[in-house]
Design goal:
- With about 100 residues, this protein is mainly alpha-helical.
- About 50% of the residues lie in helices and about 5% in strands.
- The protein has helices spanning about 10-20, 30-35, 40-50, 65-80; strands at about 55, 60.
- A hairpin with a 4-residue loop joins strand 1 (about 55) and strand 2.
- The longest helix is centred in the C-terminal third of the chain and has 15 residues, at about 65-80.
- It is globular, with a radius of gyration of 15 Å.
- The two termini are about 30 Å apart.
Length: about 100
Amino acid sequence: MRKYKGMRPQNVAILLKIVSIGSENCQLPGLSNVLKISISEISESLNRSRLAGLIDYNQKKINRHNLLEFLEPAVRYVFPKQTGAMVRGFQRLILIPI
């Protein structure tokens, strides 16, 4: 395993995908195919999440309390808002149950 260098934006996407499909149905090749991220990067991401306390490797479960505690303040910095040109239409809010 490489040296821990902190969380990355893809860690959030991978963790939320695992929560959405259920950790018991989660396999690396399936995640790689759906998210278009290499298996090795998913593995490194899961190791970073384990070191951060967001995954319990022994039970192979996401620590939902820690994940929510991490996401609430962090998402605005991991995915900064960027204003673009004015367009017609509306934004759709997608809620993900945790």
